[in-house]
Amino acid sequence: MTRTSPSSKPATLKADAVAIQPVTPTQQVIRRFVRHKGAMVGLFILIGIILFIMVGSFVFSEADANRTNTGIRLQPPSAEHPFGTDRIGRDILARTIYGGQISLLIGLLAVIVEVSVGTTVGALAGYYGGWVDAILMRITEAMLSIPSLLLLLVMAKFFGSKIPDVELLGRSFSGSVVVIVLIIGLTSWMGLARIVRSNVLALKETDFILAARALGLPNRRIIMAHILPNTLASIIVALTLGVATAILAEAYVSFLGLGVQAPTASWGNILTEAQEFQIIKDAPWYWFFPSALILLTVLSINFVGDGLRDALDPRSDKKV
Question: What is the CATH number of the domain that holds 101?
Answer without folding.
Answer: 1.10.3720.10
